Amino acid sequence: MNTKTALLYLVLFSFIGCQSGQTKTAPQATTKKENTPIPKSEQFNQYWYSGKAELSSYTLKQARYGEIRDGEVVLVFVTEPFSVSKQVKLDNPQKAGTDNVSVMKLNHVRKFNTGIYDYSIVTSTFTPIDTQNHPFTLKASTSIQEWCGHTFTQLNLADDKYNFKQFSYFEADGDEEKTINATFLEEALFTKIRIAKGQLPEGEINLIPSTIYSRFNYKKMDVEKAEISKTTSEKTLTYKIKYLNINRTLTIDVEKEFPYKILGFTEFDGTGLTTTAKLKASSNEPYWQQKKLSDQDKRKALKLKYE
Prior knowledge:
The protein has helices at residues 3-15, 42-48, 189-195, 211-216, 297-301, and strands at residues 28-30, 35-37, 53-64, 67-83, 100-114, 117-128, 139-146, 149-158, 161-167, 176-181, 184-185, 203-208, 224-232, 236-243, 249-255, 262-268, 274-285.
């Protein structure tokens, strides 16, 4: 990515906006010179630094192997203190100084069956709240488990590159390490939306496609051109992300008002079938504390089907 393009994207995104390590007070954005407050509203801070995570469940219709499979998605959004250098959640954020950056973490959990056997997929994305000083997501990882075996993919930001690692049981894929030019991640569109008042930049953009798409379609991960457009209804913002050189289109339905929840999404990969996810239920809970048998009733409130 050239300097002019990087600056353009930075401006676009900066103006729009396990025990959990979540903090209950809004942190300070850090720069090399001084600490300055993150320019977020009181409403944002009260919601995202309440000591709870936002949990949302979705009915999933997953396209796989030429058929639509019933399944379920859970999106877990939570803020956490994160180490820029180590790229892990900090145990002692108060001692980390400028290495401590507050991130919006999304754990995207997807489960569905294919005939006799099942799939379980988890993608974790760590996007800084302070998009002005940290325009790109710091880390994203995806693990896919199914009865044939499992794969693991991870991207870590290092200056203007992502360090990419992939581990697979397939001979054609094997283990791979490479660098990819730093730009925006499809996985991070959900977190960017939550941080930037429901907004994404419209027009042509460089984007690294979903790791799930890459694995399911045996595509090498790299930067692709995509075009983002938006339509608006009374209560919903709908974003369409269409890749220009690969056969993939993603749509995301977003609440028009705060807290800009993800209402659903669709994925079309040129197979003639479309994956859809529609919101069932949502709640805010400190789920990491809810480990007793008696806490299982909270699963009913989320309308969770898959154990």
